[in-house]
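Board notes (copied after class):
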Amino acid sequence: MQESTLFLILVGVFVAAAAGYLGSFMVLKRMSLVGDALSHVALPGMAIALALNFSPILGAFIALTIAIFGIWYFENTSKLYPEALVGVFFTTSLALGVLITPQPDLLEALFGNIEKISLVEGIVAIILSVLIILLAGLIAKKIIMGIVSEELVRSMGISNSKINLIYLLLVGTVVALGVKFVGTLLMGALVIIPAASAKNVSRGINDYYFLSILFGVVSAIIGITISSFFHIISGPTVVLTSIFFFILTYAAKRFGS
C-alpha cells in the first residue's frame, strides 16, 4: 500500500473517530436530522473558497460557524425549535451552494475526494480531531445531564444553552474537516450512522461511546482502502461501509435477542 494512501487512511481514522464520538451525543439528543442538515450548510462556504482560491475546508468552517451562531441566536430569541431553524439554514445554504459552486467542482464538493487533501490539511485535520474528542469528553457529562433533565442542569448553575453552543461548534468543526473526506451531502451520515450502529448493540454508556468511535474508524479504514484500490470516490464508499455495519448490528439486535 502506498504511503499516500496510508496517510489518507490515518486522516480518515481521526476524522471518523471525532465524528463518531460527537454523533453518539447527537443520537441521544435525537438531533440526527440536525447533524445531517448542518453538513449541507458548508456548501456555500466551500464554493466561495474555491472562487477565491483558498482551502474549501476553511470556507466550510466559516460558513458552518456563522450558521451555528445564527441558529443559537434565533433559538434563544424566538420560539422556533432548533430543527426548524436548521432547516431554514439548510435549504438556504444548499440553494446558494449549488448556484455558486463552479460546475467542475460541484461533484467533489457534494461527495468528497480525500485524494485532494494536502499534507498540511491532513495534519491540521488530525490535530483538530484529537482536540474535538478531548473537548467533547470534557462536556460529555453536562450534555448527558441536559438530555436527562434541563431543570437539573439549571439547578446546578450550568448554562445548557452554552453547552449546546459549544457542542454544535464542535460538530461544525468536524463537519468542516470531513467535507473533503465524504462531501457535504454525506458528512451527516458519518456523524450519525456509526452512533446508530453502536446504539443497536451497546450495553452501557461507555460501551456506546467506544463503539460509536470504533464503527466510524473501521468504516473509514475499509471505505478508503476500497476506494483507493478500485479508484472510486471515497465518500460514498465510506458511507456504504458504515451502512453495512448498521445493518449487521440491527440484525444482531433483532435476531440475537
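Comment from the instructor: The first helix runs from residue 3 to 28. The chain has a mean pLDDT of 82.
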